[in-house]
Amino acid sequence: xxxxxxxxxxxxxxxxxxxxxxxxxxxxxxxxxxxxxxxxxxxxxxxxxxxxxxxxxxxxxxxxxxxxxxxxxxxxxxxxxxxxxxxxxxxxxxxxxxxxxxxxxxxxxxxxxxxxxxxxxxxxxxxxxxxxxxxxxxxxxxxxxxxxxxxxxxxxxxxxxxxxxxxxxxxxxxxxxxxxxxxxxxxxxxxxxxxxxxxxxxxxxxxxxxxxxxxxxxxxxxxxxxxxxxxxxxxxxxxxxxxxxxxxxxxxxxxxxxxxxxxxxxxxxxxxxxxxxxxxxxxxxxxxxxxxxxxxxxxxxxxxxxxxxxxxxxxxxxxxxxxxxxxxxxxxxxxxxxxxxxxxxxxxxxxxxxxxxxxxxxxxxxxxxxxxxxxxxxxx
Length: 380
Ligand SMILES: Cc1cc2nc3c(=O)[nH]c(=O)nc-3n(C[C@H](O)[C@H](O)[C@H](O)COP(=O)(O)OP(=O)(O)OC[C@H]3O[C@@H](n4cnc5c(N)ncnc54)[C@H](O)[C@@H]3O)c2cc1C
Fold this sequence. Notes:
With about 375 residues, the protein is an alpha/beta fold. It is about 30% helix and about 25% strand. The radius of gyration is 22 Å and the shape is elongated. The two termini are about 25 Å apart. The protein binds flavin-adenine dinucleotide (FAD).
């Protein structure tokens, strides 16, 4: 039961920025404030570790943040459900089941939605990487089926970004490990990456070269400058008309903003993401904040990536507290260059920052250390 005589802070989505908010209010509670977290998934996936889960380096539970425990520690109500709309005049968020959730201050960290509108059959036949809670059991089922003699053998990843590159290499590593030497010789898996505009767009040319070399060395066919338009149970059709044999298609292509944003009346950028001021308040409504992939700071746009969602976390916590205490908020300028770590299936990775890029086991150890430190911070 919520005590409505107190101020209500409602957090929607248990994304990377909101876990910092939960931590900050657990460490330093605010009197007269009640906090509610509305989340689709009480165990929030940390997708940076997902390729490691696919490769078999991590168990699934090692890649999930226990939001319930975090909420208990912070004295926060957790409601399991999805927000589908906002009545800004009456200051209420609507849940998918129709119930309203009143707020004084609202914060949104709901991530992206996969955009497969242009790939026919994707909903029925693809393994969509997001939401991770649906992807993980599908991947585990695929690994189990792959050991059978009539199981899937032709594995395809669609999407040339870091996620697509990491996932096809991780899938190869895991499935190769599941076969004996004799099976590998007689009944081999084949792997294809359909990379759209190219490998690792937005990364420095040296990182792209290293990734291409890693894919080629591991026998993965790379299709660049072509996109998937149809996924069928045993083939994928490309825009050029070419067909690729496929028994399993892992899709991590374009992302889009959640569709329900369109009816909130909040200003959005050209791609539909919430438009923010440098204070992380929405342009339209100063009582509504947002962070992570679902929003764009109009003056300082940055790539949609976990790095920026994580960096915004402590800032968002400070801004929410400041706003609830009716203080003037400082604008936040995100960093420009950032470290990117792309894992290569086995315990090796490409590290890049600015124009620098290098690969090796040391880069994987670095990524593993960063990821585990993040998870320990919130799961301990
Ligand atoms: C395979 C893969 C590997 C990646 N590796 C990296 C990496 O190494 N480094 C990196 O920087 N980035 C990486 N990324 C990108 C990174 O995962 C995202 O940028 C990051 O998760 C964005 O965080 P977020 O807080 O915006 O949203 P998310 O982490 O997506 O969290 C949003 C949460 O909100 C919940 N939610 C959604 N809609 C609603 C709703 N309507 N109501 C209530 N709850 C809702 C979701 O269930 C989810 O738990 C990777 C992505 C993938 C797919």
